[in-house]
Amino acid sequence: MKTIRIGSGAGYSGDRIEPAVELAEKGDIQYLVFECLAERTIAIAQGAKLKDPAQGYDPLLAERMLAVLRPCHEKGIRIITNMGAANPAAAAAKTRDIARSLGLEGLKIAAVSGDDVLETLKSGDHRIEETGEPVSAMAGRLVSANAYLGAAPIVEALKAGADIVITGRVADPALFLAPQIFEFGWSMEDWDRLGKGTVVGHLLECAGQITGGYFADPGVKDVAALARLGFPIAEVQEDGSAIITKVSGSGGAVTTATCKEQLLYEIHDPAAYLTPDVVADFSQVRFTQEGPDRVRVVGATGRPRPATLKVSVGYLDSFIGEGQISYAGPGALARGRLALEIVRERLALTGVEATELRFDLIGVDSIHGGALSTAGGREPYEVRVRVAGRTGSLKEAQRIGNEVETLYTNGPASGGGATKSAKDVVAMLSALLPRDLAKPAIEFMEA
Amino acid sequence: MKLRDIAHSRTGDKGDISNISVIAFDEADYPLIEAHVTAERVKALFHEVVHGEVVRYAIPSIGALNFVMRQALGGGVTRSLALDAHGKCLASALLDLDIDLDVPAPGRSGRLD
What is the ipTM of this complex? Predict the structure, then answer.
Protein backbone atom coordinates (compact mmCIF):
# COMPACT_ATOMS: atom_id res chain seq x y z
CA MET A 1 0.00 0.00 0.00
CA LYS A 2 1.19 3.52 -0.80
CA THR A 3 2.66 5.40 2.17
CA ILE A 4 3.55 9.07 2.55
CA ARG A 5 5.48 10.81 5.31
CA ILE A 6 4.43 14.29 6.46
CA GLY A 7 6.55 16.35 8.85
CA SER A 8 5.34 19.14 11.11
CA GLY A 9 7.86 22.00 11.09
CA ALA A 10 6.26 24.47 13.49
CA GLY A 11 3.53 24.49 16.12
CA TYR A 12 3.20 28.26 16.30
CA SER A 13 4.61 31.41 14.74
CA GLY A 14 7.60 31.79 17.04
CA ASP A 15 8.54 28.10 17.19
CA ARG A 16 12.10 26.69 16.97
CA ILE A 17 13.52 26.50 13.46
CA GLU A 18 16.24 23.76 13.59
CA PRO A 19 13.77 20.90 14.16
CA ALA A 20 12.23 21.74 10.77
CA VAL A 21 15.66 21.66 9.13
CA GLU A 22 16.28 18.30 10.82
CA LEU A 23 12.99 17.00 9.36
CA ALA A 24 13.91 18.22 5.88
CA GLU A 25 17.41 16.74 5.98
CA LYS A 26 16.85 13.48 7.87
CA GLY A 27 13.10 12.92 8.07
CA ASP A 28 12.64 11.06 4.78
CA ILE A 29 9.46 13.13 4.31
CA GLN A 30 7.58 14.21 1.19
CA TYR A 31 5.73 17.13 2.85
CA LEU A 32 6.83 19.70 5.41
CA VAL A 33 3.96 21.63 7.00
CA PHE A 34 4.28 24.80 9.07
CA GLU A 35 1.25 25.80 11.15
CA CYS A 36 1.97 29.33 12.34
CA LEU A 37 -1.33 31.16 12.84
CA ALA A 38 -2.68 31.71 16.35
CA GLU A 39 -6.18 33.16 16.84
CA ARG A 40 -5.01 36.75 16.86
CA THR A 41 -2.09 36.62 14.40
CA ILE A 42 -4.03 37.63 11.28
CA ALA A 43 -5.70 40.59 13.01
CA ILE A 44 -2.26 41.91 13.98
CA ALA A 45 -0.81 41.13 10.54
CA GLN A 46 -3.69 43.07 8.96
CA GLY A 47 -2.37 46.20 10.69
CA ALA A 48 1.10 45.62 9.21
CA LYS A 49 -0.41 45.16 5.71
CA LEU A 50 -2.34 48.44 5.99
CA LYS A 51 0.93 50.26 6.71
CA ASP A 52 2.86 48.45 3.94
CA PRO A 53 1.11 46.41 1.21
CA ALA A 54 4.22 44.17 0.92
CA GLN A 55 3.89 43.09 4.58
CA GLY A 56 1.26 41.28 6.61
CA TYR A 57 2.72 37.78 6.53
CA ASP A 58 4.48 35.81 9.26
CA PRO A 59 7.49 37.72 10.69
CA LEU A 60 9.63 34.53 10.68
CA LEU A 61 8.72 33.52 7.10
CA ALA A 62 12.02 34.68 5.61
CA GLU A 63 14.12 33.03 8.32
CA ARG A 64 12.21 29.73 8.00
CA MET A 65 12.35 29.67 4.20
CA LEU A 66 16.07 30.52 4.20
CA ALA A 67 16.66 27.55 6.51
CA VAL A 68 14.56 24.90 4.73
CA LEU A 69 14.24 25.80 1.03
CA ARG A 70 17.54 24.23 -0.05
CA PRO A 71 17.15 20.87 1.72
CA CYS A 72 13.50 20.69 0.65
CA HIS A 73 14.40 21.47 -2.97
CA GLU A 74 17.20 18.89 -3.00
CA LYS A 75 14.97 16.15 -1.63
CA GLY A 76 11.81 17.11 -3.51
CA ILE A 77 9.88 17.93 -0.33
CA ARG A 78 6.81 20.08 -0.84
CA ILE A 79 6.07 22.82 1.72
CA ILE A 80 2.58 23.75 2.94
CA THR A 81 2.11 26.63 5.37
CA ASN A 82 -0.35 29.25 6.61
CA MET A 83 2.50 31.75 7.08
CA GLY A 84 0.78 33.94 4.49
CA ALA A 85 -1.35 35.32 7.37
CA ALA A 86 -3.05 38.49 6.09
CA ASN A 87 -1.05 38.58 2.83
CA PRO A 88 -0.33 35.18 1.18
CA ALA A 89 0.60 36.78 -2.16
CA ALA A 90 3.28 38.95 -0.54
CA ALA A 91 4.55 35.91 1.38
CA ALA A 92 4.78 33.94 -1.88
CA ALA A 93 6.66 36.79 -3.58
CA LYS A 94 9.09 36.96 -0.65
CA THR A 95 9.60 33.19 -0.81
CA ARG A 96 10.25 33.40 -4.56
CA ASP A 97 12.88 36.10 -3.94
CA ILE A 98 14.56 33.98 -1.26
CA ALA A 99 14.59 30.93 -3.58
CA ARG A 100 16.24 33.03 -6.31
CA SER A 101 18.80 34.44 -3.86
CA LEU A 102 19.70 30.83 -2.97
CA GLY A 103 20.06 30.01 -6.66
CA LEU A 104 17.15 27.55 -6.60
CA GLU A 105 15.34 27.32 -9.90
CA GLY A 106 12.03 25.95 -11.14
CA LEU A 107 10.14 26.23 -7.87
CA LYS A 108 6.41 26.72 -8.28
CA ILE A 109 4.83 28.70 -5.46
CA ALA A 110 1.08 28.99 -4.86
CA ALA A 111 -0.63 31.68 -2.78
CA VAL A 112 -4.10 30.73 -1.53
CA SER A 113 -6.35 33.66 -0.67
CA GLY A 114 -10.07 34.16 -0.21
CA ASP A 115 -10.23 33.68 3.54
CA ASP A 116 -10.58 37.45 4.08
CA VAL A 117 -14.37 37.92 4.38
CA LEU A 118 -14.40 41.24 6.25
CA GLU A 119 -16.43 43.10 3.62
CA THR A 120 -18.89 40.20 3.22
CA LEU A 121 -19.41 40.02 6.95
CA LYS A 122 -19.89 43.79 7.29
CA SER A 123 -22.47 44.02 4.52
CA GLY A 124 -24.66 41.01 5.34
CA ASP A 125 -26.91 40.11 8.25
CA HIS A 126 -24.42 38.20 10.40
CA ARG A 127 -24.10 37.81 14.15
CA ILE A 128 -21.24 37.27 16.57
CA GLU A 129 -21.43 33.75 17.99
CA GLU A 130 -20.36 34.56 21.55
CA THR A 131 -22.54 37.66 22.09
CA GLY A 132 -25.38 37.40 19.57
CA GLU A 133 -24.59 41.00 18.60
CA PRO A 134 -24.95 41.93 14.89
CA VAL A 135 -21.52 42.23 13.25
CA SER A 136 -22.62 45.55 11.72
CA ALA A 137 -22.90 47.05 15.23
CA MET A 138 -19.12 46.57 15.64
CA ALA A 139 -18.27 48.14 12.30
CA GLY A 140 -16.00 50.90 13.62
CA ARG A 141 -13.96 48.50 15.74
CA LEU A 142 -13.56 45.59 13.28
CA VAL A 143 -9.98 44.87 12.23
CA SER A 144 -10.23 41.55 10.39
CA ALA A 145 -12.56 38.68 9.57
CA ASN A 146 -11.10 35.48 8.17
CA ALA A 147 -12.98 32.33 7.33
CA TYR A 148 -11.34 29.00 8.13
CA LEU A 149 -10.89 27.52 4.64
CA GLY A 150 -10.60 23.79 4.13
CA ALA A 151 -8.19 21.52 2.26
CA ALA A 152 -9.69 21.99 -1.23
CA PRO A 153 -7.66 24.99 -2.49
CA ILE A 154 -4.42 23.41 -1.20
CA VAL A 155 -5.24 20.15 -3.01
CA GLU A 156 -5.89 22.16 -6.17
CA ALA A 157 -2.54 23.94 -5.84
CA LEU A 158 -0.75 20.58 -5.36
CA LYS A 159 -2.52 19.17 -8.44
CA ALA A 160 -1.28 22.16 -10.43
CA GLY A 161 2.26 21.20 -9.41
CA ALA A 162 2.98 23.66 -6.62
CA ASP A 163 6.16 22.92 -4.66
CA ILE A 164 5.23 25.45 -1.98
CA VAL A 165 1.67 26.35 -0.95
CA ILE A 166 1.22 29.46 1.20
CA THR A 167 -2.18 30.24 2.69
CA GLY A 168 -3.84 32.65 5.08
CA ARG A 169 -6.46 31.33 7.49
CA VAL A 170 -7.02 27.62 6.88
CA ALA A 171 -8.21 25.11 9.47
CA ASP A 172 -4.99 23.80 11.04
CA PRO A 173 -5.63 20.08 10.32
CA ALA A 174 -6.51 20.92 6.69
CA LEU A 175 -2.85 21.83 6.06
CA PHE A 176 -2.05 18.15 6.75
CA LEU A 177 -5.24 16.66 5.31
CA ALA A 178 -4.63 18.26 1.89
CA PRO A 179 -1.51 16.24 0.95
CA GLN A 180 -3.28 13.02 2.03
CA ILE A 181 -6.29 13.80 -0.19
CA PHE A 182 -3.96 14.69 -3.08
CA GLU A 183 -1.64 11.68 -2.77
CA PHE A 184 -4.32 9.06 -2.17
CA GLY A 185 -7.00 10.54 -4.40
CA TRP A 186 -9.55 10.56 -1.59
CA SER A 187 -13.01 11.91 -2.42
CA MET A 188 -13.95 15.18 -0.69
CA GLU A 189 -17.02 13.25 0.53
CA ASP A 190 -15.21 10.19 1.89
CA TRP A 191 -16.08 11.25 5.44
CA ASP A 192 -14.43 8.24 7.07
CA ARG A 193 -11.05 8.88 5.43
CA LEU A 194 -11.32 12.64 5.87
CA GLY A 195 -11.95 11.99 9.57
CA LYS A 196 -8.86 9.75 9.72
CA GLY A 197 -6.76 12.31 7.87
CA THR A 198 -8.02 15.05 10.18
CA VAL A 199 -6.93 13.19 13.31
CA VAL A 200 -3.44 12.92 11.80
CA GLY A 201 -3.50 16.68 11.14
CA HIS A 202 -4.76 17.44 14.63
CA LEU A 203 -2.04 15.29 16.22
CA LEU A 204 0.70 16.99 14.18
CA GLU A 205 -0.41 20.62 14.11
CA CYS A 206 1.26 21.63 17.40
CA ALA A 207 4.58 20.05 16.38
CA GLY A 208 6.61 19.37 19.55
CA GLN A 209 3.51 18.94 21.70
CA ILE A 210 3.26 15.31 20.54
CA THR A 211 6.97 14.49 20.75
CA GLY A 212 7.41 15.30 24.43
CA GLY A 213 6.93 19.08 24.62
CA TYR A 214 4.30 20.47 27.05
CA PHE A 215 4.48 17.06 28.74
CA ALA A 216 7.49 16.63 31.06
CA ASP A 217 6.86 16.48 34.81
CA PRO A 218 10.10 15.35 36.50
CA GLY A 219 9.77 12.13 38.46
CA VAL A 220 6.32 11.45 37.02
CA LYS A 221 6.68 11.97 33.27
CA ASP A 222 10.34 12.32 32.35
CA VAL A 223 11.35 13.31 28.82
CA ALA A 224 14.95 13.27 27.57
CA ALA A 225 16.67 16.05 25.63
CA LEU A 226 13.94 18.69 25.41
CA ALA A 227 16.56 21.24 24.29
CA ARG A 228 16.83 19.37 20.99
CA LEU A 229 13.25 18.16 20.75
CA GLY A 230 12.48 16.43 17.46
CA PHE A 231 9.30 17.45 15.61
CA PRO A 232 6.78 14.80 14.54
CA ILE A 233 6.33 12.81 11.36
CA ALA A 234 3.12 11.03 10.33
CA GLU A 235 3.54 7.96 8.18
CA VAL A 236 0.15 7.65 6.49
CA GLN A 237 -1.24 4.86 4.30
CA GLU A 238 -3.99 5.25 1.73
CA ASP A 239 -6.58 3.55 3.94
CA GLY A 240 -6.02 6.37 6.44
CA SER A 241 -4.09 4.35 9.01
CA ALA A 242 -1.09 6.18 10.43
CA ILE A 243 1.99 5.97 12.59
CA ILE A 244 3.32 8.98 14.51
CA THR A 245 7.10 9.06 14.83
CA LYS A 246 10.09 11.43 14.75
CA VAL A 247 13.65 11.61 13.44
CA SER A 248 15.82 8.93 15.02
CA GLY A 249 18.31 10.44 17.48
CA SER A 250 16.37 13.67 18.05
CA GLY A 251 15.23 14.65 21.56
CA GLY A 252 11.86 13.95 23.13
CA ALA A 253 9.64 10.89 22.88
CA VAL A 254 6.58 9.68 20.99
CA THR A 255 4.53 7.47 23.30
CA THR A 256 0.87 6.55 23.66
CA ALA A 257 0.77 9.04 26.56
CA THR A 258 2.07 11.99 24.50
CA CYS A 259 -0.37 11.06 21.71
CA LYS A 260 -3.36 10.83 24.08
CA GLU A 261 -2.64 14.27 25.54
CA GLN A 262 -2.41 15.81 22.10
CA LEU A 263 -5.54 14.02 20.84
CA LEU A 264 -7.63 15.88 23.44
CA TYR A 265 -5.75 19.19 23.21
CA GLU A 266 -8.21 22.02 22.42
CA ILE A 267 -11.02 19.50 21.82
CA HIS A 268 -14.54 19.93 23.15
CA ASP A 269 -16.88 17.04 22.18
CA PRO A 270 -14.45 14.33 20.97
CA ALA A 271 -17.23 12.82 18.83
CA ALA A 272 -17.74 16.07 16.91
CA TYR A 273 -14.58 17.94 16.00
CA LEU A 274 -15.83 20.52 13.50
CA THR A 275 -13.63 21.41 10.55
CA PRO A 276 -14.46 22.92 7.13
CA ASP A 277 -13.85 19.50 5.51
CA VAL A 278 -15.50 17.01 7.85
CA VAL A 279 -17.01 16.57 11.31
CA ALA A 280 -14.33 14.29 12.69
CA ASP A 281 -15.05 11.74 15.40
CA PHE A 282 -12.10 11.05 17.73
CA SER A 283 -14.17 9.21 20.34
CA GLN A 284 -13.10 5.68 19.29
CA VAL A 285 -9.43 6.43 18.61
CA ARG A 286 -6.86 3.98 20.00
CA PHE A 287 -3.07 4.18 20.18
CA THR A 288 -0.58 1.31 20.12
CA GLN A 289 3.16 1.56 20.77
CA GLU A 290 4.71 -0.36 17.86
CA GLY A 291 8.32 0.44 18.66
CA PRO A 292 10.50 3.15 20.20
CA ASP A 293 8.99 6.51 19.19
CA ARG A 294 6.49 4.80 16.90
CA VAL A 295 2.79 4.95 17.80
CA ARG A 296 -0.02 3.64 15.61
CA VAL A 297 -3.30 5.56 15.61
CA VAL A 298 -6.54 3.86 14.55
CA GLY A 299 -10.29 4.31 14.97
CA ALA A 300 -10.99 7.87 13.84
CA THR A 301 -13.95 8.42 11.56
CA GLY A 302 -16.07 11.27 10.28
CA ARG A 303 -19.46 12.61 9.21
CA PRO A 304 -20.54 15.16 6.56
CA ARG A 305 -18.98 18.60 6.89
CA PRO A 306 -20.88 21.57 8.41
CA ALA A 307 -22.86 23.89 6.11
CA THR A 308 -21.13 26.94 7.55
CA LEU A 309 -17.53 28.08 7.93
CA LYS A 310 -16.19 29.48 11.18
CA VAL A 311 -14.97 33.05 10.85
CA SER A 312 -12.41 34.51 13.22
CA VAL A 313 -13.27 38.18 13.83
CA GLY A 314 -10.62 40.57 15.12
CA TYR A 315 -11.69 43.84 16.76
CA LEU A 316 -10.25 46.67 18.84
CA ASP A 317 -11.36 45.69 22.32
CA SER A 318 -9.64 47.82 24.92
CA PHE A 319 -6.28 48.76 26.41
CA ILE A 320 -4.40 46.93 29.16
CA GLY A 321 -1.97 48.60 31.56
CA GLU A 322 0.25 46.59 33.87
CA GLY A 323 2.92 47.14 36.50
CA GLN A 324 5.10 44.76 38.54
CA ILE A 325 7.57 45.12 41.44
CA SER A 326 9.38 42.59 43.65
CA TYR A 327 9.86 42.18 47.41
CA ALA A 328 12.19 39.63 49.03
CA GLY A 329 13.50 38.40 52.39
CA PRO A 330 11.73 38.45 55.76
CA GLY A 331 8.30 40.05 55.57
CA ALA A 332 8.23 39.99 51.76
CA LEU A 333 4.66 38.68 51.68
CA ALA A 334 3.34 41.39 54.02
CA ARG A 335 5.15 44.11 52.06
CA GLY A 336 3.75 42.72 48.81
CA ARG A 337 0.22 42.78 50.24
CA LEU A 338 0.75 46.33 51.52
CA ALA A 339 1.96 47.36 48.08
CA LEU A 340 -1.21 45.98 46.44
CA GLU A 341 -3.39 47.86 48.92
CA ILE A 342 -1.52 51.10 48.24
CA VAL A 343 -1.95 50.76 44.47
CA ARG A 344 -5.63 49.84 44.87
CA GLU A 345 -6.18 53.02 46.90
CA ARG A 346 -4.07 55.16 44.55
CA LEU A 347 -6.01 54.06 41.46
CA ALA A 348 -9.23 55.11 43.22
CA LEU A 349 -7.79 58.36 44.65
CA THR A 350 -6.41 59.51 41.32
CA GLY A 351 -9.50 58.43 39.39
CA VAL A 352 -7.95 55.98 36.92
CA GLU A 353 -10.79 54.87 34.67
CA ALA A 354 -10.49 51.08 34.58
CA THR A 355 -13.38 48.76 33.77
CA GLU A 356 -11.61 45.73 35.23
CA LEU A 357 -8.66 45.41 37.63
CA ARG A 358 -6.58 42.52 38.83
CA PHE A 359 -4.22 42.41 41.85
CA ASP A 360 -1.81 39.48 41.97
CA LEU A 361 1.12 38.31 44.05
CA ILE A 362 3.24 36.27 41.68
CA GLY A 363 4.63 33.30 43.60
CA VAL A 364 1.55 33.26 45.85
CA ASP A 365 -1.81 33.52 44.12
CA SER A 366 -1.42 34.98 40.62
CA ILE A 367 -2.33 31.89 38.61
CA HIS A 368 -5.34 30.27 40.30
CA GLY A 369 -6.41 32.75 43.00
CA GLY A 370 -6.30 32.41 46.77
CA ALA A 371 -8.43 29.30 47.34
CA LEU A 372 -6.24 26.90 45.35
CA SER A 373 -2.88 28.34 46.35
CA THR A 374 -1.31 26.65 49.34
CA ALA A 375 -1.59 28.97 52.31
CA GLY A 376 0.03 26.27 54.47
CA GLY A 377 2.53 27.90 56.84
CA ARG A 378 5.78 28.68 55.00
CA GLU A 379 6.02 32.10 53.43
CA PRO A 380 7.69 32.47 50.06
CA TYR A 381 11.18 34.02 50.10
CA GLU A 382 10.17 36.49 47.41
CA VAL A 383 6.95 37.80 45.90
CA ARG A 384 6.23 39.87 42.84
CA VAL A 385 3.38 42.35 42.93
CA ARG A 386 1.34 42.57 39.74
CA VAL A 387 -1.49 44.97 39.00
CA ALA A 388 -3.30 44.86 35.65
CA GLY A 389 -6.30 46.81 34.44
CA ARG A 390 -8.48 47.31 31.39
CA THR A 391 -9.11 50.85 30.19
CA GLY A 392 -10.60 52.74 27.28
CA SER A 393 -7.43 54.55 26.26
CA LEU A 394 -3.69 54.02 26.19
CA LYS A 395 -3.19 57.06 28.42
CA GLU A 396 -5.36 55.59 31.17
CA ALA A 397 -3.63 52.22 30.78
CA GLN A 398 -0.24 53.87 31.33
CA ARG A 399 -1.43 55.28 34.65
CA ILE A 400 -1.79 51.77 36.08
CA GLY A 401 1.86 50.84 35.59
CA ASN A 402 2.89 54.27 36.84
CA GLU A 403 1.10 53.68 40.14
CA VAL A 404 3.09 50.48 40.62
CA GLU A 405 6.38 52.11 39.66
CA THR A 406 5.93 54.97 42.16
CA LEU A 407 6.02 52.31 44.90
CA TYR A 408 9.82 52.58 44.55
CA THR A 409 9.87 55.84 46.52
CA ASN A 410 6.37 55.91 48.02
CA GLY A 411 5.65 52.29 48.89
CA PRO A 412 6.88 49.55 51.25
CA ALA A 413 10.59 49.04 52.06
CA SER A 414 12.95 47.35 49.62
CA GLY A 415 10.78 47.18 46.52
CA GLY A 416 12.85 46.41 43.41
CA GLY A 417 12.75 45.56 39.71
CA ALA A 418 9.64 47.53 38.76
CA THR A 419 8.42 47.12 35.20
CA LYS A 420 5.42 48.63 33.46
CA SER A 421 3.64 48.24 30.15
CA ALA A 422 0.57 49.46 28.31
CA LYS A 423 -0.84 48.08 25.09
CA ASP A 424 -3.89 48.09 22.90
CA VAL A 425 -5.82 44.83 22.76
CA VAL A 426 -7.00 43.34 19.50
CA ALA A 427 -9.32 40.58 20.66
CA MET A 428 -11.08 37.80 18.78
CA LEU A 429 -14.68 36.68 18.48
CA SER A 430 -16.25 34.34 15.94
CA ALA A 431 -19.10 34.18 13.46
CA LEU A 432 -20.51 31.51 11.15
CA LEU A 433 -20.74 32.12 7.41
CA PRO A 434 -22.51 30.06 4.69
CA ARG A 435 -19.59 28.31 2.99
CA ASP A 436 -20.32 29.57 -0.53
CA LEU A 437 -19.70 33.16 0.66
CA ALA A 438 -15.97 32.48 1.03
CA LYS A 439 -14.34 32.16 -2.40
CA PRO A 440 -10.83 30.67 -2.34
CA ALA A 441 -8.46 31.83 -5.08
CA ILE A 442 -4.97 30.62 -6.07
CA GLU A 443 -2.16 32.65 -7.58
CA PHE A 444 1.00 30.96 -8.91
CA MET A 445 4.56 32.31 -9.09
CA GLU A 446 7.78 30.69 -10.31
CA ALA A 447 11.27 31.11 -8.94
CA MET B 1 -3.98 9.16 46.84
CA LYS B 2 -3.71 12.10 44.51
CA LEU B 3 -5.07 12.06 40.96
CA ARG B 4 -1.49 12.78 39.88
CA ASP B 5 -0.51 9.26 41.04
CA ILE B 6 -2.72 7.59 38.44
CA ALA B 7 -3.36 10.16 35.71
CA HIS B 8 -1.80 12.83 33.54
CA SER B 9 -3.41 15.88 32.08
CA ARG B 10 -3.18 18.70 29.50
CA THR B 11 -5.03 22.00 29.12
CA GLY B 12 -6.21 23.53 25.85
CA ASP B 13 -7.89 26.87 25.14
CA LYS B 14 -10.39 28.29 22.67
CA GLY B 15 -11.79 31.76 23.29
CA ASP B 16 -13.15 31.83 26.85
CA ILE B 17 -13.36 28.02 27.02
CA SER B 18 -10.72 25.86 28.66
CA ASN B 19 -10.58 22.09 28.27
CA ILE B 20 -8.64 19.75 30.53
CA SER B 21 -7.96 16.12 29.73
CA VAL B 22 -7.49 13.57 32.50
CA ILE B 23 -5.78 10.43 31.18
CA ALA B 24 -5.08 7.21 33.10
CA PHE B 25 -1.42 6.13 33.02
CA ASP B 26 -2.73 2.56 33.23
CA GLU B 27 -6.05 2.07 31.44
CA ALA B 28 -7.05 -0.32 34.26
CA ASP B 29 -7.39 2.75 36.50
CA TYR B 30 -9.85 4.43 34.16
CA PRO B 31 -13.03 3.24 35.98
CA LEU B 32 -11.63 4.67 39.23
CA ILE B 33 -11.00 8.02 37.56
CA GLU B 34 -14.39 7.96 35.87
CA ALA B 35 -16.06 7.34 39.24
CA HIS B 36 -14.17 9.95 41.26
CA VAL B 37 -13.40 12.82 38.91
CA THR B 38 -16.82 14.29 38.27
CA ALA B 39 -17.90 17.56 36.65
CA GLU B 40 -19.16 18.65 40.09
CA ARG B 41 -15.75 18.18 41.71
CA VAL B 42 -13.96 20.00 38.90
CA LYS B 43 -16.44 22.88 39.07
CA ALA B 44 -16.00 23.09 42.86
CA LEU B 45 -12.20 22.95 42.65
CA PHE B 46 -12.04 25.82 40.15
CA HIS B 47 -14.86 27.92 41.66
CA GLU B 48 -12.63 31.01 41.71
CA VAL B 49 -11.54 30.55 38.11
CA VAL B 50 -14.41 28.98 36.14
CA HIS B 51 -17.66 30.95 36.04
CA GLY B 52 -19.64 28.91 33.50
CA GLU B 53 -20.75 25.32 33.08
CA VAL B 54 -18.43 22.33 33.22
CA VAL B 55 -19.21 19.43 30.86
CA ARG B 56 -17.45 16.07 31.06
CA TYR B 57 -16.86 13.84 28.02
CA ALA B 58 -15.68 10.23 28.36
CA ILE B 59 -13.23 8.65 25.89
CA PRO B 60 -12.89 5.09 27.28
CA SER B 61 -10.96 3.92 24.20
CA ILE B 62 -7.91 5.80 25.54
CA GLY B 63 -8.88 5.73 29.23
CA ALA B 64 -9.53 9.46 29.39
CA LEU B 65 -11.99 12.14 30.41
CA ASN B 66 -12.25 15.62 28.88
CA PHE B 67 -13.62 18.54 30.91
CA VAL B 68 -14.90 21.51 28.93
CA MET B 69 -15.19 24.60 31.12
CA ARG B 70 -16.96 27.76 29.93
CA GLN B 71 -16.21 31.33 31.08
CA ALA B 72 -12.91 29.99 32.29
CA LEU B 73 -10.31 32.29 30.74
CA GLY B 74 -11.02 35.77 32.06
CA GLY B 75 -13.23 36.73 29.11
CA GLY B 76 -11.04 35.02 26.49
CA VAL B 77 -7.38 34.35 25.81
CA THR B 78 -7.00 37.40 23.57
CA ARG B 79 -8.34 39.92 26.16
CA SER B 80 -7.70 38.38 29.59
CA LEU B 81 -5.87 40.32 32.32
CA ALA B 82 -4.53 37.06 33.76
CA LEU B 83 -0.84 36.20 33.84
CA ASP B 84 -1.66 32.74 32.44
CA ALA B 85 -4.19 33.93 29.86
CA HIS B 86 -4.32 30.50 28.18
CA GLY B 87 -5.06 28.70 31.46
CA LYS B 88 -2.20 26.29 30.69
CA CYS B 89 -1.44 25.85 34.40
CA LEU B 90 -4.95 24.49 35.16
CA ALA B 91 -4.08 20.87 34.31
CA SER B 92 -1.46 20.67 37.07
CA ALA B 93 -3.90 22.11 39.61
CA LEU B 94 -6.48 19.45 38.72
CA LEU B 95 -3.96 16.63 39.31
CA ASP B 96 -3.80 17.66 42.99
CA LEU B 97 -7.34 16.32 43.45
CA ASP B 98 -7.65 13.69 46.21
CA ILE B 99 -8.80 10.23 45.17
CA ASP B 100 -10.00 8.75 48.45
CA LEU B 101 -10.49 5.02 47.99
CA ASP B 102 -12.29 4.73 51.36
CA VAL B 103 -15.01 7.12 50.28
CA PRO B 104 -17.69 5.68 47.99
CA ALA B 105 -17.41 7.14 44.53
CA PRO B 106 -19.87 9.99 44.00
CA GLY B 107 -20.96 8.31 40.81
CA ARG B 108 -21.11 9.29 37.19
CA SER B 109 -21.76 12.79 36.11
CA GLY B 110 -22.16 14.50 32.81
CA ARG B 111 -23.10 18.16 32.89
CA LEU B 112 -23.03 20.83 35.53
CA ASP B 113 -24.27 24.36 34.96
Answer: 0.94
